[in-house]
Amino acid sequence: MDATIFGVRMLNTEKNTVDYLYEYERGERLSSIEVSMDNSDNYSVWCIKNNQEILIHDNEVDYKKYVSKVMVVGGDFPYSLIFYPLRKGDKVLGAISVQSFEKNAYSDYHVNIVKTLAHYTVIALENARNYENMEAEVKARTSELIKQKEEVQRSYENTKLLSEIGKE
Q1: Which CATH superfamily is domain 5-129 in?
Q2: Is pLDDT above 90 for 25?
Q3: pLDDT above 80: residue 152
Q4: How far is CA 107 from each of CA 24, 60, 80, 101, rounded to the nearest angstrom?
């Protein structure tokens, strides 16, 4: 499967943007890009808003099904495109994209591959979030235990001092 361009784009609800966090063209990682969710001529925005896949065989002709004009955010002009929403239940987290500089590069079979990849990507992203949350929780609990230990130590020292004063 030709994946000359590959990207994982995440919905940022706080900023109302689609963040192109993991974008590769010809094996080179591209810098991060933000696109407003108000940009109705962006395929990622369309895919996320409509919670539907996009399959384009010839970008010069097929774009009209989804957008009013073709906008290439970065890199060269791709002809074949697949966009698939990253879904967790009913919630759309972003979109995954595979693109080719060749016309008619993809079929329904390729869409199914991207669909499976999207599913596993959501699982990986959720595992990463859970790990980060768990790590933060461990850090917070460790900090609390250190505070409790210090308090017990002070209490012990005070009791020891009172004991010595009592002996005197």
Answers
A1: GAF domain (3.30.450.40)
A2: yes
A3: yes
A4: 21, 18, 10, 15
